[in-house]
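Need a sequence for this fold. Nothing fancy.
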């Protein structure tokens, strides 16, 4: 074993002319379509009353989708490294956006693809431990424009994002929609796909949106005007129920955005407009696969790395805690081998499950050290141990003691705030990320516990906004104990097995990385 520490749609076909496939192989093509900072609940399939993601909703209903899918941690780099390694942040050693060079694993997704003869491409945002040069083809984009600026429009749009809309822009973006990242990313992705002829391919289509800067061009700016939006379920009045880290984050946001509460409806509208633009581009991408005959030989995964407050608790972006708006992510699987389900899959799944699932789909062995579980049997409509997916865990925090309001360190000294610049703040900072939290979701219940023994217990069906904490309520003592046992089981399960024992000891695991097999259900 080479332990290493890294230190440096069928329904669409009838409406399109289908030509012979250019790259039909024995192994399926894999396309991961990832957004950055997308809440799971702002879509029609989950009951949101506006047409935010109509195409993804329709694709989900014709294939398989999960309404209990979670990130491993509500921060970009920890989440993305886990997707590529199948390992949780405590195992990858990447618990913050500042630990990219510490990623620890045996073999990641990109290596498995290459071993199996795949061509690989990234179009969009990276922000994982894999390097751009590790892909056969890479065209990078970030939140502030195209990494390699090919045209004058690229340069002008990047200047606008960096100078005028660094955090947010409250008017319609003064550029045509064709200048926006998602449009250009899909154009580049389809152009690369058209060149693939002899080998299966993996393509990571990674949208930097709807992450801030919250800006959007017409016609999307007007689609979700503030007066048409349903109200949020919570507000700043609920912050005291969520704890000091939420209150500190609110202070930071107000220091950087003095009119935030007044601007929130427009920022929410921008966020929804960005999502609708992405949805239209996902439709264009998949229709392109149908038109070239590649759809039937491709597996598509649509997901996000983590969520966004989008106005809940009077906050934007992310940072404090592990509420559902930050931790629950969209997840849709479509294409070859996916057996359609009429309802959302009744399973608790994780971003860490993506890599082992893909291993199963292409006939590769799941590497040692992977902690995620393969979803392939359930995606195929085969039997699987229900107990294996009865709950899911999320990790948060880089450890140490909590930083509090009493610290002499200021936002400006720490680097979390750039004064005199609107919306120039870093929500992932020493205050919001210090300490340790663990979250477990099981059925309608959610438990959160931190390194000081402070607990939260919520019934998500009755209290979806998590403001009625039932922890230490005698009426729910039995449920609290059940959830604590579930959390402890996960904590023990996710102890890093690397390095596995040497010499005589035999390390036991099964082909799908299940912990609970059929006889344990």
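Here you go.
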């Amino acid at each position: 074993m080479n332990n290493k520490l890294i230190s440096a749609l069928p329904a669409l076909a009838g409406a399109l002319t289908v030509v012979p496939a250019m790259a039909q192989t024995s192994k399926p093509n894999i396309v991961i379509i990832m957004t950055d900072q997308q809440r799971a609940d702002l879509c029609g399939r989950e009951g949101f009353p506006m047409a935010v993601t109509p195409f993804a909703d329709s694709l989900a209903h014709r294939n398989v989708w999960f309404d209990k899918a979670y990130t491993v941690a509500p921060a970009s780099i920890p989440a993305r490294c886990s997707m590529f390694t199948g390992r949780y942040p405590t195992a990858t050693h990447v618990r913050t956006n500042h630990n990219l060079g510490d990623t620890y694993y045996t073999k990641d997704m990109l290596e498995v693809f290459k071993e199996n003869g795949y061509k690989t491409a990234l179009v969009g945002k990276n922000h994982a431990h894999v390097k751009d040069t590790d892909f056969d083809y890479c065209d990078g984009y970030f939140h502030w424009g195209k990494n390699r600026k090919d045209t004058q429009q690229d340069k002008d749009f990047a200047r606008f994002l960096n100078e005028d809309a660094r955090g947010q822009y409250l008017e319609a973006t003064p550029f045509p929609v064709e200048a926006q990242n998602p449009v250009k990313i899909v154009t580049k992705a389809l152009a690369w796909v058209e060149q693939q002829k002899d080998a299966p391919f993996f393509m990571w289509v990674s949208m930097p949106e709807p992450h801030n800067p919250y800006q959007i061009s017409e016609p999307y700016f007007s689609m979700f005007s503030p007066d048409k939006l349903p109200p949020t379920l919570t507000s700043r009045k609920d912050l005291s129920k969520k704890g000091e880290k939420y209150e500190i984050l609110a202070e930071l946001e107000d220091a950087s955005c003095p009119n935030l509460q007044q601007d929130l409806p427009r920022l929410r509208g921008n966020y929804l407009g960005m999502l609708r633009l992405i949805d239209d581009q996902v439709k264009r991408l998949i229709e392109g696969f149908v038109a070239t005959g590649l759809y039937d030989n491709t597996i598509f995964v649509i997901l996000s790395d983590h969520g966004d407050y989008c106005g809940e608790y009077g906050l934007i972006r992310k940072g404090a805690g592990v509420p559902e708006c930050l931790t629950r992510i969209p997840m849709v699987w479509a294409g070859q081998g996916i057996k359609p389900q009429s309802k959302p899959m009744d399973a608790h799944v994780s971003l860490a499950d993506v890599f082992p699932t893909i291993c199963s789909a292409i006939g590769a062995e799941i590497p040692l050290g992977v902690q995620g579980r393969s979803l392939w049997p359930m995606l195929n409509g085969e039997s699987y141990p229900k107990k294996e997916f009865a709950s899911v865990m999320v990790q948060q925090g880089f450890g140490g003691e909590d930083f509090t309001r009493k610290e002499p360190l200021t936002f400006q000294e720490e680097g979390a705030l750039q004064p005199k610049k609107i919306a120039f703040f870093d929500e992932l900072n020493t205050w919001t990320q210090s300490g340790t939290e663990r979250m477990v979701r099981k059925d309608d219940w959610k438990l959160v516990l931190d390194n000081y023994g402070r607990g939260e217990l919520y019934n998500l069906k009755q209290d979806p906004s998590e403001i009625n904490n039932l922890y230490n309520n005698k009426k729910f003592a039995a449920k609290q104990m059940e959830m604590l046992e579930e959390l402890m089981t996960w904590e023990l399960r996710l102890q890093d097995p690397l390095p596995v024992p040497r010499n005589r000891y035999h390390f036991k695991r099964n082909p799908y990385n299940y912990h609970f097999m059929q006889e344990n259900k």
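For context: The CA atoms of residues 251 and 257 lie 10 Å apart.
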